[in-house]
Predict the structure.
Amino acid sequence: MSRTRVSLVFITFITLLLISLVLSLGMGAVAIPPAQVLAVLFHHTDPSLSGATVAIVWDLRLARTLLALVIGAGLAASGSAYQAIFRNPLADPYIIGASGGAALGATLAIILNINAVMPAAFAGALLAVAIVYLIAQAGGQVSAFNLVLAGAALSTLLSAAVSLLMFLGDRDLHEMFAWLLGGLSGRSWPQMDITAPLVILGIALLWGMSRPLDALTFGEETAQSLGLNLFWARTLLVTAATLTTAAAVASAGIIGFVGLLAPHIARHLVGGAHARQTPMSALVGGLLLVLADDLARTMMAPLELPVGVLTALLGAPFFLWLLKRGEPWPR
Amino acid sequence: MATISTETLTLAYNGHDVLREVDLRARQGEILALVGPNGVGKTTLLRALARQMRPRHGAVMVDGQDAWQLSVREAARQVGLVPQQADGDWPLSVEEVVALGRMAHRGWFLPLSRQDKHVIRKTLSQTELYDLRNRPVTTLSGGERQRMLIARALVQEPRILLLDEPTANLDLRYQGMVLTLVQKLTHEQLLSVIMSIHDLNLAALYADRMMLLAEGRILAEGSVDEVLTEGNLLQAYGVPVVVARHPVYNVPLVAPALPVVEKERQE
């Protein structure tokens, strides 16, 4: 993989992302042309712009679009890390139960009216990942299928628990259900302010640990013979990936398959070295979710689809295809 | 003296002893070949030497110090391992894989130094991989892949090198190529090498010393001539063999003497 090609791919995707951000800010009930979006973004004190346009872009759309970007990037970066940690091309925050655990934690906090949604989501996600890992590891190596089966079973259990909580809690069922399906509807700066710093921290940590991630793709014994302390590497990596996932889920509910799709695309584009793969996954994931959210908002306007439904429609067939293609990593 | 040795090492799987009271010592600049029937514990012994399993009794010593007292990184700077199993299909380039060996020196975060890059480049040349350095590992042949795994271990700059069946799944040409490389490196860099190997004739050609494992213990140990005798091999493998001499290198040449149906001669 030549340096020039890698740089070109990165520049292309950053450009695509910027364009999609501007287009996305112009989309909605009131269409705003791209030129005007740019004017609002860079000269919002310009008196020739109408106050309504400025308000729509800054107060209504910008936070949501940025949130889509941040959440997509976070899910993709953590999916990329989970794939290396579990040595499993099918791993994704949703598949391995991290998202489900975060959702259960967050739901509990919301229903019990505890003002700690984020820590609860993080604790739930960490617990779910630990359980799935222990079950899948029974009998030595973590096999791809064991991991998927354990993740699926646990996810079912977790979502049943969430449904039960919603049923028992006296919250508006429809609203909670929409949250669970994964959506950005009505999300704005308060969610952005909590989620963005955590996701950025998580991605930075994962990026910093590119070398351990690369080593882990060879399996634990080889990684150890290369001088990697497995206990610390696994602990820190799982914590960082799970923190990122929990931060995303706490704001937008369960959005599946972005974390599966994006790393595969990234690996195809820039190779598997995590120093490049992690940022590329984040870029692709961010772009995917911004585009998916545009679709979710406009496809059946004025009705908004939960974006998680769209990513599942897009991602699940891909997952099945990967499964059918067989295990690229033997054992 | 950079050596690895064991003292009354007993290794067990699920409570069953696999190997008992093994005393072994690698010497600098020498290849010690571990031979013996399938399932006798050659890989188990290598895993114990590489600190991948804890001994039930006894100890693994690196330079006279208990290997388990070393940190993971210290151990990786002393002992390099060339594992047997084919590594995964992760799309890294040859150079990226080999560079991972520097983690033992550089840790998790620090970027590679000029010195690291020098070692990597030198090793790639030594193992004749320099021209392949940008190739994805997924496109390598068996022999190229084995050379890459050796290069990755060498980049750790270990003084002890462990190889698990380095010629498994290689054809005649690559077997010779890989073992010649190991031999050259052993002598040039004064490495202490221990390798498990199935093929007795290849072992006879390349090993300086040999250890024959059978029935959970060391059956014979010493020079190639001392170990590869008809009596030892009959006892270890349970089949009769004939030991002749290699026509070119004058080392033992082992051929099975199993009962075979005489083939029809073509007149």
